[in-house]
Amino acid sequence: DIQMTQSPSSLSASVGDSVTITCRASQTIANYLHWYQQKPGKAPKLLIYAASNLQSGVPSRFRGRGSGTDFTLTISGLQPEDFATYFCQQSYTNPALTFGGGTKVEIK
Amino acid sequence: QLQLQESGPGLVKPSETLSLSCAVSGGSITSSSYYWGWIRQSPGKGLEWIGSIYYTGTTSYNPSLQSRVTISVDRTTNHFSLKLTSVTAADTAVYFCARPTSASGPINYFYAVDVWGPGTTVTVSS
User: Fold this and answer.
1) Per-residue confidence (pLDDT) for residue B43, from 0 to 100
2) I need a labelling partner for B60 at 20 to 30 A (CA). Which of A67, A90, A92, B67 fits?
3) How far apart are CA B76 and CA B41, in angstroms?
4) How close B14 comes to chain A (CA, Å)?
5) Which residues of A50-64 are buried (b: 16+ CB within 10 A; e: fewer)?
6) Chain-chain contact of A97 with B48 (C-beta, under 8 angstroms)
7) What's the rounded Cα separation, in Å, for the pair A96 and A93?
8) Torsion of CA A19, A88, A106, B115, to 10 degrees
9) What is the pLDDT of residues A1-34, one digit of tens each?
10) CB–CB contact A94 B62 (8 Å)
11) Closest Cα of chain B to A94: distance in Å?
């Protein structure tokens, strides 16, 4: 089984800050890595697919990078609506999927 | 625009079977580009993939749940369903139906989940 490890599990930041979340796979997953944003009481929302592709309608301040085992999600210029929990997910073993543990981005 | 909607009991007794259905609207469940899946989230926890089904009926399950899970598809009604047997309090969660997508038009999604249902809360308690 492929394990996905996200770090940090939580972070505090201010509006306008840039933050980076890391996701590491236990073995290579090429670019089968996706990022989601989840707000309380809501379903996750796809932000980035295939490591670096911005989903339609997602602001360009979200950027995904990486391949193989190490991936990052960077939010440049945090906006109030960006405070949420972010998850990575691998689909290299599709149709089986694995999610990272999540990173909660809180207001400092 | 395709939408998913979960339905089913919100309360299930321990040792009984959890049964949920997901209605697919705005599109066909028989498209070759998609799987149809179930994902759950326990209170305050992360996301756990339960399993997925292709419109032909081919299934894939999380090994940790495989012995208790059955996912089925009904092409005539555009629904797919989840059954989880012998439930315990550990199965209390929000259950999402979801669509992992290989491609949509010219875009290769590499099985990202681009459509989610709103989720339904299931509590296991006597």
Assistant:
1) 86
2) A67
3) 29
4) 25
5) bbbbebeebeeebbb
6) no
7) 5
8) 120
9) 999 999 999 999 999 999 999 999 999 999 999 9
10) no
11) 7
